[in-house]
Structures are given as C-alpha cells and as structure tokens.
Amino acid sequence: MPLLTLENVMKQENDRTVLKNLTLTIEEKSQIGIKMTHHESLVFFKLLSGELAPSSGDVKIETSAIVTELTEDALYEGLTVSSYLNIFKKLADFQEPLETFIGVFSLSDVWHTRISRLSLDQKKRISLFRMFLFSPRLLLIQSPLSNATDEGIELYLQALDHLRSKNTAVVCTSTFLEELLLLSNDVYRYNRYTGLEKTDLADSGISTQSETNDPDPKPNKVYKVSSRMADKTIFFSPNEIDFIESVNSVSTIRIGEEHFPTDLTMNELEAKLTNFGFFRCHRSYLVNLQRVSELVSYSKNSYTLVLKGNTNLKLPLSRNRLEEMKALMEF
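Below the sequence we write its predicted structure tokens.
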C-alpha cells in the first residue's frame, strides 16, 4: 500500500512557483533520491509531512509516522551520546534497551562521550539513531552524506540498511547526484521547467538468465547516451540533453546545470545523435536543436545560439555552419 502519493502537485511562495509537476508514489521500503536545491527540498519535505498544503494538486498521506531530518538540524552538543538518545527514547516511548542497537549505528566506542567531541560522521549516525527511535514508516533526509568521509559513508549506509530492514521507506534529497546514487534505488531530478523526472539507471551487474533468455523482440531504434557515475551507469534519452561539449577531449553531457561525462567522442556522438535533431554547431559543441530558442549575431562573423530557459548560456555557432543550420531549421 502506498505510504504517500503526490498527484500533479504545485507549490507557490509569494506568487512564485517553487515546485510544480510533482507526481510521485512512495511505497513501503521505497529508496528514493531526488536531486533538487536546498530550498526546493525544504518545501518538498513540508509538503510530504503535511506541514504545507499544495497550491494545486493532491497530496495523499497514508501514515503519520514520518520523520524528517534537515541539514541544519543540530544535536545537543553538551550531552553525551547516551544521555542525548535517552531523552529521545522517552519522547518516542521506545521500549527496547538502547544498548541493543549501539552496534547497528557504530557508536559503541563513543557511547559515553560528549557529542561536541565527535566527528561529523559520528554525529550523522546519532541523528539516524534518534530518527530510528520514533519507529518511522517514512524517513525524509536532506543530504545525509554531505562532507562525510568514505568510512563515514560506509557506516551510515550500514545503519540505514537496518532501518530499511524494518520496511521503512527513505526519501533523500541532495544537490549531488553521486550522493543519491549511493542512497537510493530510484533517482529523480527536479527540473524547475518541467518538474520531477526519473533518471534512467542501470546497475553494473551481469544480466540475469531470465533477461538473456527473453524471447520477446527488442526495439531496434532505441538509443540513449550513457554516463558512468560511481558504480552505476546512467542513460539519457536524447530529448533530455541540452547540449554536449568537449573540453580537453572529454565529452560532457549538459542537462540544465548538471554535467555528466561520457566515454564517447564528439564524432561518435554526432554520428549517433544527428538523427535525433542534434547539430554540430561548433567543433566543441553538439546542440539539441529542439532546445534552441534564439540565434544572435553580434557581427557578420560572430553567431551565438541561446537555449530555452537559460538566456545566460550561449553556445558558439561557427560561421561556416550557419547555412547548414538554416537549411535544417528552414529559416
């Protein structure tokens, strides 16, 4: 049963749209990551917890056991770990001994240590322990791995797995896609122009036997551009991409403010993407013509392409490519 459902939700503040086109279902055990700004995340979590009502659309909340942690949430630095968590044990009416779970959150060595003396990694695990005491069905966590060490990330993920083993759903937000890939199975990006978009991910594991023996016919005209991020490969549909640039022989996919490196060369990308409406406007740029909104001429030899929704971003157009582009776009 869904814990929470958003249907075409939009939220404004002071007559300005902060979030729009939010359609999402959060099921039990969900592991969802959403790339969005800090402020967008604050508003999003308030919508999910019922603290804010949407300006339009529907939010259906099926559980009251929702616990939120924001990056600015602080601990009581003057208390020891033990005394701090015992306060929340009483508030949450948690019945089991805390000592049973010290190892789960890797806090045995600092159980009687003052919090002010602990590292950021340890403090993050204390926060997670505190949330666990409230027996949440849905956790909303803002950028939990930000500035964490490699060891801290490993221990945090181990502790988070314990909560997931209790069927807790977890929704994390961050401005870093790499962080969300570590925390989530399903990753979305919030685009302020189009709303919530699911990112196509593929694990790097070997295909299962059922997949390799699948007798169903496969589509023969599907093409996606891949980018390796951490231990996963992300696939982008051509229509998601604004443009691709090449710097120092490294091709980078550009989608809004995001950058994704790809192993393909510009020539390979041009050969693959021309049929999807891409145009080599400059030796270092391959642009999605569907995203072009203006052609600006600063002189008879200088041309620039402006993309939809981002007038500050200008791509060069080589003079010798102008006539070819005119023919393609019929202007």
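Helices lie at 38-49, 81-92, 120-132, 150-165, 177-183, 209-212, 266-273, 322-329.
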